[in-house]
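Hi R.,

Here's the chain you asked about this morning:
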Amino acid sequence: MAKLDEIAELLTEEIKGFENSVNRMEQLKEFLMTYKVQADTSDIDFILKRYNDHQRKAVEEQHKLMANVVYYIKKSITFPKWSIKLFWGLLVCIFLVLGFSVYKVSRIPKLEQNAYGQGEGKATAHFKAFLEASPEASELYQEWRKPQNKE
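And the predicted structure, written out as tokens:
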């Protein structure tokens, strides 16, 4: 029986411990039912404020960059398409005229040589006709052509 008494004692102690736990749980339940929870948003407010500051700085920086872009766009010069086409057309015309002028100038020596040859041929033909028309001038010319020996 001693064993049964021991087991009964252990069971009694366990039941008392269980009752104590149940009492504590009931007290905690009552405490929690009457406990008022207050929301603390100070951490969230701090995070949101920091995020707001960061966004404000980003927006200000974007405004500065946009102001720079607007400044450089206003400072830049834009030309209409027709004026650019006109400029290139005039430039092509200038180069064509310049190239044609260089071509013509490079042909001048050849033209001078042809003109000299034609003039020489006409002068020779004129003198032949003159000498044929006047035999006295032809004789004088033939005498003049002969080398004179100086003795």
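The chain is about 85% helix and 0% strand.

Let me know if you need anything else.
M.
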